[in-house]
Amino acid sequence: MAGISRKEITVPNIMTLLRIIMAVVAAVLIRDPERRGLAAVMLIFASILDYFDGWYARRFQQKTRLGAHLDPFADKVLITVVFLIIASAIKTPWFYFFVGVILLREVLVTMYRIVVRRKAGVFVPASWLG
Known about the structure:
Helix 1 (11-29) packs parallel to helix 3 (65-90). By secondary structure, the chain is mainly alpha-helical. The protein has helices spanning 11-29, 36-59, 65-90, 93-120. The protein has one domain (6-120): CDP-alcohol phosphotransferase transmembrane (TM) domain (Four Helix Bundle (Hemerythrin (Met), subunit A)). It has four helices and no strands. 75% of the residues lie in helices and 0% in strands.
């Protein structure tokens, strides 16, 4: 497997990596009642960065293959963390079902993109609809 080239190390890709790190750290911090506020701020900031990393990549022609793969992954990490936090707070069976359906959809969309890529050689980028 090839390494990451210098051209792939862009401001938008760094923002996307930061989103992943913030989501994971927030998932850990949320368990501590004294740090829940910080975790919430990190999740909000990560969500805002989701808009800006894409905007920056388009505005300054910094779209990369790595970013096309990394951005949807970061979205899935953030969505999963937020839903699991909400599910653990609500603690009702119907919400766990709801979270399961959404996460299943994310997995199926990802699998579809992988299959299309392998069989047709076509990369299916993320869109506003997923």
